Amino acid sequence: MFNNLNGILFVTLLPLLIVGQGFLYLWLAARFGQEVILTSQMGQTAIQHLVKVLPAMAALPIETQLKVLLLNQFSFFLLLIPTMIAISFATFSIVDEKLSHSLEALLATPVRTWELLLGKALSGSLPAIVITWLCSLVFLLGVVGLGWSHLIGLVVTPSWYISLFLLTPAVAVLSFMLGIIGSSRAADPKGAQNIALVVIFPVFALIGVQVTGLVWFTPLLTLALALGIGVVDIFVLRVATHLFQRESIVIRWR
Amino acid sequence: MEGLSLAVEPGEVLGFLGPNGSGKTTTIRMLAGIIAPTSGYAVVAGLRPDQQPERLHEVIGLLTESPGFYDRLSVRRNLEYFAGFYSGLDIPAQVEKYLRLIGLWERRGDRVGTLSKGMKQRLALARSLLHEPKVLFLDEPTAGLDPEAAHEVREMIKKLSQEGRTILLCTHNLAEAELLCHRIAVIRTRLLALDSAERLRQRLFHHQVTIRLETLSSPIVAAVEKLPFVQSFSHDENQLTTELDAPERNLPELIKCVVEAGGRITEVSEKQHSLEDVYLTLVREGESIGS
User: Fold this and answer.
1) Looking at the predicted structure, is the pLDDT value of residue B161 above 80?
2) Which segments within B152-289 are labelled E, that is strand?
3) Domain spans of chain B, in order of start
4) CATH superfamily name and code, B13-200
5) Which terminus in chain A has less CB density within 10 A, N or C?
6) A190 to each of A82, A88, A151, how far by Cα in Å?
């Protein structure tokens, strides 16, 4: 992927676009949506959750509480980055192997299918994880740029670290594995990506659940989510291994 | 493939010949444990490909139809990568050994994408040998190579055979099959024939002998016609052409008969049917002459 312009643009521009969009929504909400959010049941519930988790918030003015609330949505918004990048790496990974005819030679070695897929998942997720971490730094710089640097301590919380260092890798690996499942069933990269995009919707659901205040992801809950997705990763690896049809990939793909 | 049953002796080179789509590559893939058969089973190096593919892959080497390398990695890095899947290998030593053997040690730092087709094919052969496999599956090892590169690959295969490795060789090149293989299996979705090239010739075609004489007289013609081992017989001017059974036994008797009938022989020549004749006869007629 890094050897053509499209690939490079994808892994640099897409994350920046996501971060940029996030900041835009943040700014618009803080600038023009204060009244709507603060007077809505949803907004009030969300702020109440936030104050429970961060007691230091209680002493802050309501407008500042709103800014902290909006900034805290970002950790899940950032999950879109490892999701989309890992999927793209995954789809090109298997399809590229097939098109370069290196897959058959690989299948003639003693490597087991699950070892092959796990190795690809771990190595293929790494760029997505690193790019997400870099984008989180860009996000923090953006917070400073907006003149909200005094709020960073209320954003970079234990939940933030758990999301960045446990949840992001788990989601990246999950996205990669689903991308592999898509690749081994579809005949070309586009078809594979279409199948794998199904993972995007749960990420949006996570964002929605927190934004609407239905659930507030405390450090413990974030940790449980990360571990839960880790367990799902193991299950999806087994499914991907089972669905990785050597005959179809070696014989029918032309 | 249907009804394929055969046994290959240790150290034997068995050639698979057949038209496109006849099942040669499919057979190799099944035996190498890449794909599973729908029925039946195989035992390769004492292992079942359908039950123990990973153990099997430790002791077999496969040269695929397309070399299949990572073009952006170097020659050495490609081999090191594949060697890493095998246990107990001294990877640097084996990589150096086989790169030197195939004459690519000096190119070890170059990207595989910069190599010619012949070099990639030799590199693919080296890859299949890194772990010193007992059994080799070679799928069209000289396809698309220029004569010099093809000759080099054939010499390597001969050397491997002399080392006692068991080799299954898929090829369209009949001369190559005749040169390298102890026995040849002709297949067309099923096994049509399995034997050495020479025995296949003998079983399909009678031995044709042409005897040129100073003069051909009717007593000579009459004497030859009476011989029981002459399957067919034609003559013109001063030449006899016969097809014989068991030529190693009957050719001396034929010559003796001609001389006793008064013939003065100026030349005796034998027509050798080519492997191409054998192959075309089998494939076109779909004749199964047993194995």
Assistant:
1) yes
2) 166-170, 183-187, 191-195, 207-213, 230-236, 239-244, 265-271
3) 13-200, 206-272
4) P-loop containing nucleotide triphosphate hydrolases (3.40.50.300)
5) C
6) 19, 10, 42
Looking at beta carbons, which residues of chain A come within 8 Å of B77? none
Cβ <8 Å between A104 and B54 = no
Would you say A68 and A60 are in contact if contact means Cβ atoms under 8 Å apart? yes
Q: Which of A105, A110, A247 sits opposite B68 (nearest CB)?
A: A105
Look at B82 and A109 and tell me if their CB atoms are within 8 Å: yes
Q: How many domains does chain A have?
A: 1
CATH architecture of structural domain B206-272: 2-Layer Sandwich (3.30)
Residue with tokens 């007992």: B134
**Secondary structure percentages of chain B, helix, strand, coil, to 5:** 40, 20, 40
Closest Cα of chain B to A3: distance in Å? 9
Residue B63 one-letter amino acid: L
Residues from chain B that touch A100, judged by Cβ atoms under 8 A, are 68-71
pTM given for the model: 0.77
Contact between residue A219 and residue A159 where contact means Cβ atoms under 8 Å apart:
yes
| Residues of the domain holding A109 | 5-252
Residue among A101, A111, A251 whose CB faces B85 most closely:
A111
CB within 8 Å: A102 and B127: no
Residue B129 binned pLDDT confidence (cut-offs 50, 70, 90): very high
pLDDT band with cut points at 50, 70 and 90 for residue A4:
low
User: Using one digit for the tens of pLDDT, what is the confidence trace for B58-108?
Assistant: 999 999 888 889 998 999 999 999 999 999 999 999 999 999 998 999 999
Q: What is the pLDDT of residues B239-252, one digit of tens each?
A: 998 888 777 888 89
Per-residue pLDDT band at B192 (split at 50, 70, 90): confident
